[in-house]
Amino acid sequence: MKLVGAILILITTTIVGWEYSSRLSRRTKQIRYLKIAFEALETEMVFGMTPLPYACEKVSYQLISPLKSLFTNVAKRLKEEENSAQEIWCSSVKSWKNKTDLSEAEINILLQFGQTLGQQDLEGQRKQIRLAISYFDQEEKQAVESQQKFESMYKSLGFLGGVLIVIIML
Q1: pTM, two decimal places
Q2: Domain boundaries, the chain
Q3: How far apart are CA 122 and CA 129, in angstroms?
Q4: CB 3 within 8 A of CB 11
């Protein structure tokens, strides 16, 4: 019976370590897709002259989950609600942030971008999109560094933490 418990503890802590490790890689991937999304949004708005709800909808088709759901929700709400684009974007990001592996820094970039959404002319909006992309570039570099530094550590700590718990319990 002790052996079964020890194996279960070891498996559980190893899975937890692998999950923390995979969050790091998912965060990096999501930041890359956010950059793609903002570049596509810029193209749709500035060059395609597409209205914001339809631009967000088109961008959502190019994204993976959970980023897709953010842009889909924003597009849907912009079409249906009378609130400002700024209010819709910020409330959508706040309700969506728990579904993603992004850190607070990336969420804050999204919220800061939302503060300017619909407030400026096309050239001003383009500058804000470019600024957000440059911030995401910096965050991506930090995410890659964290991933390289901590990914194998989390995997090892999960397993070794399980071994430690098993040893203490025996």
Answers
A1: 0.85
A2: 2-169
A3: 10
A4: no
CB 13 within 8 A of CB 159: yes
- Please give the pLDDT value at position 118: 76
Considering only CA atoms, which of 41, 169, 58, 66 is closest in space to residue 117?
A: 41
42: burial class by Cβ within 10 Å (0-12, 13-18, 19+)? buried
Q: Backbone phi, then psi, for 54, in 5-degree steps? A: -75, -30
| CB proximity list for 146: less than 8 A, separation 6 or greater | 24
Q: What is the pLDDT of residues 86-104, one digit of tens each?
A: 899 999 999 999 999 999 9
In the predicted structure, residue 121 carries a pLDDT above the cut 90: no
- Written as one letter, the residue type at 69 is S
DSSP character for 83?
Answer: S
CA-nearest of 78, 77, 71 to 36 is 71
Helix axis angle for 52-60 and 2-42, nearest 10°, is: 140
In this prediction, residue 18 has a pLDDT band, given cuts at 50, 70 and 90, of: very high
Place of tokens 């500058």: 127
